[in-house]
Amino acid sequence: MSTETTGPALKMPEKHYLNATYGIRSWLLTTDHKRIALLYLASVTFFFFIGGFFAMMIRLHLMTPNGYLLTPDQYNRMFTMHGVTMIFFFLIPSIPAVLGNFFIPMMVGAKDLAFPKINLLSWYIYIIGGMFTMWAMINGGVDTGWTFYTPLSTVYSNSEVATTVIGVFITGFSSILTGLNFLVTIHTMRAPGMTWFRLPLFVWAHYATSIVMILGTPVVAITLALAGMERLFGLGFFNPAMGGDPILFQHLFWFYSHPAVYIMILPAMGVISELIPTFARKKLFGYHFVAAASLAIAVIGFLVWTHHMFVTGQSTYAAIAFSFLTFLVAVPSAVKVFNWTATLFGGSISFDTPMLYAFGFLGLFLVGGLTGLFLGCLGVDINIHDTYFVVAHFHYIMVGGAVMGYLGGLHFWWPKMTGRMYPEWLARIAAFTLFIGFNFTFFPQFILGIMGMPRRYHVYPPEFQIYNVMSTAGASILAIGYLLPMIYLTWAAFYGEVAGNNPWPATGLEWTTQSPPLTENFEVTPVVTWEAYDFHNRPDLGLEVPGGHGPRIVAPAHGDD
Amino acid sequence: MHRTGALYGQFKTLEQQKDTATLGMWIFLVTEVMFFGGIMLAYAINRHTYFHAFAMGSQTLSLTLGTCNTLVLLASSFTMAMGVWSAQTSRKQLLSIFLILTIILGFVFFTIKYVEYSQKFHHHLVPGKSFNIRYCIDNPGKCEDISADDLREERQNLEEAERADPNLNAHAQLYYSAYFGMTGLHALHMVIGAGLLFWLLRESFRGSFDATWNTPVDIVGLYWHFVDIVWIYLFPLLYLIDRHK
């Protein structure tokens, strides 16, 4: 904890959203966005450990070149179910449905999301989709890869493709409804004075994410519906035997599934944009550019999908255009990284756990992003396509980026969500364990990829073994790094030190109310008179402003309010 | 959240609540556009590649029934719009009448669609193992609902199309994949719309809607019009391919 004030011992507020009502019905039928966020937290954590189990099986199997643990068919099922679980049931809902759900209404100064019942409905849809997928797993799983490429998935596979596809299809609607809810909330529910350019960048990031969710998810829904109907009823769009085009499936699938990467990473970027100003105690450098970069990533992200398909025999001219656009999407991402780094310059930096995750994110996202450029480069991609280089690249983005952001955000807001602090030193150790374990797991895979080890194979030549053993060893460290926060955060929710309203202190509206918040979030609707991350005009934070300017005239409102 | 009259607790004013609901429905309709967009893309690519099969498939559809259904849906959009107007002007009885009319027109659509679908099943024009584009031409006795003149014309068209595309039987299945996929999804949306209309009707009988609060009528209206517009696209895409001969 970075606050130096040691006043009288803090007490938990008497009334808050956790003790407002009791009983199982008060949770399963709640329309409170904070409780729904906790329902999501429990369910995505469950799926994370399911997906983690599959990952562990893959890594254990790959310890030896001939892999004694699993049969080839089982191996196919393991990596498929790892991908399906982690992408559709963990990464896509994780930050938006947990942290976004909890904090977007509070950050804009609203009592709840615009459509609380739809919010609950989206959780139920997610659970129903999850049940279909679990059912498929229990029944033997699915072996097509998470991409469900046709005609393998529609004609040849002998696994539970239809059930899985139905599960993913259903879950898509949960994502659509969440995105819809966020967009409408950000448009119509902002408190007086909360203009568009006073919104925290976490909200901007979710605005961009929501755009991707509502425009992309319906396309994958119809694509999977068509593939499912093809398998069940014999429709023919993707079946070459009937003249259909399997490549069309890939186009439609990646039209969503590439932007889906931005559904995973944009919210994490939003978290980082909150963490860095808070722990550098400095206004974020280039607020408008970071906000615009989120939107730019969302828009350009829709125009790069065929870079997954450079080896499908598409026209060279199309490939060149998509390669160019892929390079282009790196520009707004780089703008963000530069602005975060520039924010650190001259800041008063404290190394609390959330900040450690933010630093971890910066480094890992940088590696993941730059190796993405290798893959977007036509000539290089032909060489390393479908190798472990790709696997390492997207794990650096998704685990190194999205999951680091998620955990950083969880630590940052845990005192707000539960009213209690986590044990700081244990958390720092866990953050380091994660960082080390992560790099140990995935850096050797870059080397494996360059050496030519293809992904999704259950055997490999013996000369690759050393790197695979390193990767498996790293994965074990990584597993400990994930188990630790789960244990101590749960412990802290009940027995941690009482946190108080604003332990860091941070500038967002969510920190102006009690922790844990009331069911209505605020006692009275707040009126916003300050810019985002403005530590200068906030006497309520109790900070001595370095080089103090004294009270300044509050910046005039701009925007459309 | 607590509710005060029609105002839900998370909102400050009824106006804000209505703006929010309307924006929510518009955004939902955007997702629907993307949803139908995916299947329309698949349609467009296949129609471009297998034009003869698509034209042949289109000519097996009944222009009369299709046109009827288009008119029925246009009429239902009109009655729906009148329903919204009735709600906005507090004409409570009129609202119920227009809602009932809209529901009736919806069911007329379902009935005609049912007739069309069952014809396709009888004529072996459903994608799958028993699909046979020549079924009616080879077994005229089993397709008594097609007149001899039409059959003769169909045979002529079919032979022409088979000359242009020797694998016509396979590719025609793609047309019927599009036909059943697109009209099936559209019909599913109609079913959901009909369910919403029944709910509105129940509320309307209770007198819930008037000039101060009619948001549900408004946004269900938006949805209903959207579903109609989808049909306005489906009709030419599926029924009117190469009909000028």
Helices, strands, pairings?
The complex is a heterodimer of chains A (561) and B (245).
Chain A: H1 24-28, H2 33-61, H3 72-108, H4 116-138, H5 152-156, H6 161-188, H7 201-233, H8 246-280, H9 287-300, H10 316-344, H11 353-376, H12 378-384, H13 388-418, H14 424-451, H15 465-495
Chain B: E1 3-4, E2 7-8, H1 14-49, H2 51-59, H3 63-88, H4 92-122, H5 135-138, H6 148-164, H7 168-205, H8 215-239
Mean of residue pLDDT values of chain A? 92
Low-confidence stretches of chain A: 1-5, 550-561
Structural class of chain A: mainly alpha
Structural class of chain B: mainly alpha
Number of domains in the coordinates of chain B? 1
Question: What's the CATH class label of chain B?
Answer: Mainly Alpha
- Report the uncertain regions of chain B: none
Oligomer: heterodimer
Biggest interface, and residues per chain? A-B, 46 and 42 residues
Radius of gyration of chain B: 22 Å
Give me the strand/helix succession of chain A: HHHHHHHHHHHHHHH
User: Into how many domains do the coordinates of chain A divide?
Assistant: 1
The CATH level-2 architecture of chain A is identified as Up-down Bundle
